[in-house]
Amino acid sequence: MKPIRYVPAKVQLKAYIRKRAFVESTSNNWQSATDDLLVLEQAVKEAQLTARQLFIIKKYCFDEWLQHEIAYELHVSQPSVSRTYNRAVSKIQAVFNKWEKMERSL
């Protein structure tokens, strides 16, 4: 069975997504990129993010909005968006860490 790739512990979600997009655009290995996105999608589901956290992750990471643009849309401050984003990334990272720990125990 193919091992699951994990987001490196200290890498932000946005940097990871951009790296995967770069790898996908510079190689013909679309299957690997698809697998990574499916794993990421499962981690996001398991992290049980709030609707606001999902909105911020989607806009910031995939739609490439700036934090102040998201703040304007949500009628909150930019630091509030930053805190919410960081909490969401921490939840997702905790899922990856849990999976890695489970894989090591096998």
Describe the structure.
The chain has helices spanning 13-26, 30-47, 51-62, 67-74, 78-105. It is mainly α. Helix 1 (13-26) packs antiparallel against helix 2 (30-47) and helix 4 packs across helix 5. Residues 7-11 have low confidence and may be disordered. This is RNA polymerase sigma-70 region 4 domain-containing protein.
Could you name the key traits of this structure?
106 residues, mainly alpha, Arc Repressor Mutant, subunit A, 0% strand, RNA polymerase sigma-70 region 4 domain-containing protein
Ordered list of secondary-structure elements with their pairings:
Elements: H1 13-26, H2 30-47, H3 51-62, H4 67-74, H5 78-105
CATH class, named Mainly Alpha
- Classify the secondary structure makeup into a structural class: mainly alpha
- What's the CATH superfamily, by name? Winged helix-like DNA-binding domain superfamily/Winged helix DNA-binding domain
Order of helices and strands: HHHHH
Structure described in brief:
This is RNA polymerase sigma-70 region 4 domain-containing protein. It comes from Listeria floridensis FSL S10-1187. This protein has a single domain (13-105), classed as Orthogonal Bundle (Arc Repressor Mutant, subunit A).
